What does this fold into?
Amino acid sequence: MGRILSIDYGLKRSGIAMSDPNKILASAYKVVIGQDGLKKELDYIINNYDIEKILMGLSYKTGEVIGEIGKISIKFSKYVKSKYNLEVEFIDEAMTSKNVTEFLKKMGKNIKKYKNEIDKYSAELILEDYLKNLR
It folds into this structure.
């Protein structure tokens, strides 16, 4: 049984989360810097874990209009599909970063301290929602 990988794609940094092999649990994995960092990390993950599918958060500018980052995400997904021959599915990532930030605030965490970690928790949230819908 393969894992599902989730990416909260960003121009500066991207968050990564992975499911367990049974596709029950989502775990925040890592934040990587830049597109080159993401490519290197994907090489490592795909060569060392049994990944069967990749989810990518897709950001919308307003309503159903895909924003600039969303367009860049789509372009990156084409690279991923061609290099690894894996299915890439887009998930609406609306509000994930805000939800993670609000959760951290409720937990009494210093947001500035966690600023660089929010992306991996956003990827985890995208994956958790997806896994819930699988059940």
Notes: The chain has a mean pLDDT of 84.
